[in-house]
Amino acid sequence: MRTEFVETPSGLRMRVLSAGEPGAPALLLLHGFPELAYSWRHVMPQLAASGYRVIAPDQRGYGGTTGAEAGYDADLAGFGVPALVRDALALLHALEVARVDAVIGHDFGSPVAAWCALIRPDVFRAALCMSAPFAGPPGWRADTASDIHTALRALDPPRRHYQHWFADPGANDDMLRAPQGLPAFLRAYFHCKSGDWAGNRPFKLQDWSAASLAALPRYYVMEAGVGMAATVAAMAPDAAETAACSWMNEADLAHYAGEFGRTGFQGGLNWYRRAISAAGVAELRLFAGRRIEVPCGFIAGARDWGVRQVPGALEAMETSACADWRGATLIDGAGHWVQQEAPVATAKAILRFLAELPARSDRMAAP
Structure pTM? Predict the structure, then answer.
């Protein structure tokens, strides 16, 4: 793999990992939280060996990508979906890539990939969402997010949705300056959402109600008044579990801790703040009723609660959000960090999806 810094027309200087030949059909890989382009390190060489040019940036507010004010007081419009799609387009323009065979996103990169394909199907010929199903654009019904937060607080004990907590001014410091230290915090955060944690046994939730959401692990629906550092500390791996973790060795962990120790988490947290805000929802209602028209599929770990954290989201993706649905693949044993936990199985699933796409000459004509 190669590392380069790319000046883009959206004003960012993006750190980009790439693999494969420059003239090969391209794939764009978009990471989630708290991840980096580095999260694709094991998958990229396998995709490149199959004849693809693979491009994975540190996204806005993350890692080595600079050029955006990422503090708590930053303009959140820069962290909304339209801006993130624009960043992807600007990067491809700077790299002189007219279109990609697929955009592939994990975690919060998953909805960004979905929106890339929905908004610009001429550039993004297919989409693969990973770990976070895409239920489609928001409709015109009144937002009930505040109601669910009120209902969660009324539970015994009171609870709080993690995205609501991520919007808190103290969230960055809670994680960055965790009492157990940043490396130990990240180790616990990665562990408790992975297939290694015994508590991850996902099942379908009945509905979007406090009673249903209360069944989610504490890292998704937290105890009110308890920060994320303390929440994941209670689920931290012991010495034997740490030693057995082949997918996140000490060098990998040190890389993440070094990067987030330098930048903090606020850039990534701003994505959540914009997404759950009234303004963030309102700007996406422009696309109400639109579907992803290009081929679209889904990959996740079978032990990933992210698949079920929004009741009905995967079913909506299968039936209404995608016009050309290509199916879901759940990888046995893996949890939320599927491309890191099971990179061989993930790469195989991606390549199967790509192999079943229509031939390029039969697909959308060049603009």
Answer: 0.96
